[in-house]
Amino acid sequence: MQQFKRLVPLMNRVLIKKLEVPNKTQSGILLNSGDTKNPAGVVIETGQGYYDHKGDFVKISVKVGDTVLLPDFGGQKVNVSGQELLIFRDTDLLGILSK
């Protein structure tokens, strides 16, 4: 299969890179991989938005660089530039995380 360097989502789709889950703590304790589920990711690309049933344009509610909370299931896996990424609808994202 051909490798692509960039993917720009259409309409209300968002391209997400899932955050890596640490496999050990800062003090060196190894974590069980089953206990370290991380439903968060970083927005890599977004579509421009979409038109609702009334014909009004609805913008995407997240921007590139946002850290978002992902649902447990869903999303389309894609491989771009050797990275495994996920595509979600804007409305499927659960929230924006901040520190």
Would you spell out the secondary-structure blueprint of this structure?
Elements lengths: L12 E6 L21 E7 L2 E3 L5 E3 L7 E3 L6 E5 L2 E7 L5 E3 L2
Antiparallel strand pairs: 1-2, 1-7, 2-5, 3-4, 5-8, 6-7
Q: Approximately what portion of the residues adopt beta-strand conformation?
A: 35-45%
- Multimeric state of these chains? single chain
Structural class: mainly beta
Shape: globular
Helix content: under 10%
What's the rounded overall pLDDT mean? 83
Distance between the termini: 39 Å
For the report, how would you describe the main beta sheet? 6 strands, antiparallel
Descriptive account of the structure:
By secondary structure, the chain is mainly β. It has strands at about 15-20, 40-45, 50, 55-60, 65-70, 75-80, 85-90, 95. The strands form 2 sheets. The chain has a 6-stranded antiparallel beta sheet, with no helix packed on it. A hairpin with a 5-residue loop joins strand 3 (about 50) and strand 4. The model has no long low-confidence stretch (mean pLDDT about 85).
Quick recap:
The protein has 99 residues and is mostly beta strands. The chain has strands at residues 13-18, 40-46, 49-51, 57-59, 67-69, 76-80, 83-89, 95-97. 0% of the residues lie in helices and 37% in strands.
